[in-house]
Queue: 2 jobs
Job 1
Amino acid sequence: MKLWAGRFSKEADKKTNDFNSSIATDSRMFEEDINGSIAHATMLAAQGIISKEDGAAICEGLEQIKRDIISGELLIDPNAEDIHTFVEATLTQRIGQAGKRLHTGRSRNDQVAVDVRLTLRKECDALYALVKGLIASLQGKADEYKGAIMPGYTHLQRAQPITFATHLGAYVEMLTRDLGRLEDAKKRMNVSPLGSGALAGTTYPIDRAMTAELLGFDGYMKNTLDGVSDRDFCIELASALSIIMVHLSRLSEEIVLWCSWEFKFVELDDAFSTGSSIMPQKKNPDITELVRGKSGRVFGDLITLLTVMKGLPLAYNKDMQEDKDAIFDAFDTVKICVDTLIPMIDTMRVIPENMRKAAAGGFINATDCADYLVSKGLPFRDAYKATGEIVALCIKSGETLESLPLEKYKEVCDLFDSGVYEAIKLENCVKRRGM
Ligand code: ARG
């Protein structure tokens, strides 16, 4: 039986019912839905809108439903329209008349908005902890290989020497900003829409501050139309999640490169790599490639949310039911990516010799050579040009800046003396940069 049975003379068409239903997605909010209802019923009783006895019966009934769903005793009906309908119908089935009073002064429009906010608050906390874990893994790896020198790149061309710790440290910074974005979005999300009703509030003497407090919100949304229409928090979170995926995808891309024979800076543990069905020699960094690929899903979820919302007149429209699929998928995807990356990073073997070897080619200390001439009094532009000539000379004669004899240096610029060799030592180059 539908909630709106009074106005309708027919049952819904089966396909239409399935199309309209969101139970497959919103079942995961059953605890939040029940908690929201308990807060609402508690407030209704405290305000004398329903009797104390009915309030108590509703709250007990809801607690029991929660326990039964968790234990598996009560199965959520896949044919129900949504979780709100299912919980309310089950309650009324179990406790009778009192159950029918639960929805007094409330609409599914403010109810669903509460549920999503509560669910995403939980998701935010879970993801926050995971991202912190990934930061710890990256920091741990950086500390483990503190002295390792590698080429830093621009345009994927060897540019200047850096330490591996600095390279991983960049990701620590990015992910730390991600934590800030999650916290920030959560703060704005954590206000209660309950009491907004369908759109225009309610005529009952409800206490919105009370339900907000019972549910751990920082306050309630003042404008009831906004209360039921707003999905900014989904969009903000999907943006924050998309940025996290940009970071994970860039890290993944680098690990893919580093695993290749062309680089061989790292080796992934066998437990976190895959082989080929035909090429016996292969060891593929599938995990990182999947993370890189899954970034597309999350960006897609963000675009879904933006597109769903952009043309909607106030207040609630059924289009908004699509919000949950998108934002839950985004959270699930980012969580599994972070969770999978953590042990992969923890067990990743770093090969500092290969990094050092790569850093020795490609004249990545040329800037330091020029800076050395500057320290001798030459203007930087002239020092740059002289060093360029020296690099050209090295390339022609198969030398490196380290191996080129001092006479050759002096032929290009007589300010060079034997101190240049200390100045261009990679260890000194990174030390001077405070790495
Ligand atoms: N299943 C709906 C959703 O997820 C709940 C709100 C329904 N409200 C309504 N007026 N049909 O958005």
Job 2
Amino acid sequence: MLLHNATLACMEGDTPYGLIRDGAVALAGGHIAWAGAMAELPEVFSVLDRIDLGGRLVTPGLIDCHTHIVHGGNRAGEFELRLEGASYEEIARAGGGIVSTVAHTRAASEAELLASALPRVDALIAEGVTAIEIKSGYGLEVESELKMLRVARRIGEERAIRLRTSFLGAHAVPPEYAGNVDAYIGEVCLPALKEAHSQGLVDAVDGFCEGIAFSPEQIRRVFELARQLGLPVKLHAEQLSNLGGARLAAQFDALSADHLEYANDGDAQAMAKAGTVAVILPGAFYTLREKQMPPLAAFRDHGVAMAVATDCNPGSSPLTSLLLTMNMACTLFRMTPQEALAGATIHAARALGMMDAGRISAGMRADLAIWDVEHPSELSYRIGFNPLWKRVFGGIL
Ligand code: DI6
Ligand code: FE
């Protein structure tokens, strides 16, 4: 089929957004066969069935490259506590925070976890999202981590969306290992990773490198196993303080380092050298009323690709709108709307190692979003408005 009479934001090439007016996209076999100006349509594609898009905008399908969308319960009570003055770290140290979601996630059946996650996934799909990453990390015991990852895989079967899973066993120390962090890594985290990998449940390995979570040395043990298993790594780094997580991630050629509010110029340099994507998560910054901004100027100077993602989780970012996330990235961090859209497409794809997604180009999978807007800057500009017209998934409109 040939989509024509459209503006294309191809997200590659030399022009802003890779914008093409009076454009067309030829789709064949679930992939993009050709994209460009209608006037230059190759003869071979002129026989395809045509769909007139009425001048609408076509972008790559959006990609949410950092979510904890599978989780039990919610933390609205902590939201209230924070409004009364408690900090995120105080709540975590008092046994709330991630550990409270762990209790709910352990108690939930696979069917319950799936049923609670699907409406959140549907909210993303309704905004033109065609791929998401989902982390484990609220099980923190072998069987519960496996359960979360199975639910994540199920979401890819239940919905028309591409999925990448990340094993996040090093997310928090569960209460039964309090004060015994190294034993948790050796007795639970590493065996769970081996088992999950052997069951084909893991696409990448993540960790939380932070004072309230794991030290760089503890994360290193997890990354070393990932390397042995041939799995790429990524890391929650420099979110609340600078412990050197971004540099550690770069040493392991990480796909991404995420959050990064407390990262510095040297971290940006190391990430640039390793080709590690900076995943910017304005939902957590907003929710925690963080004041420290991620060093965007350093990322730009050193040529670090920046992605944006929801970080959808029940504690620090109960957010299921990638469009709102893009708006927040612009308003809170002064990203340009072009950077925000690149962050939710081409750079998000890279943060997932998904090399056939995130741009409109021959050979890419035909995952597209079609919008009732004139210019791509409008996607970041409105707050809480969804201009999606239709989504194309695997070449199907
Ligand atoms: N950083 C985050 O923002 C989420 N995980 C992490 O390591 C928060 C998870 C939570 O509070 O439940
Ligand atoms: Fe996160």
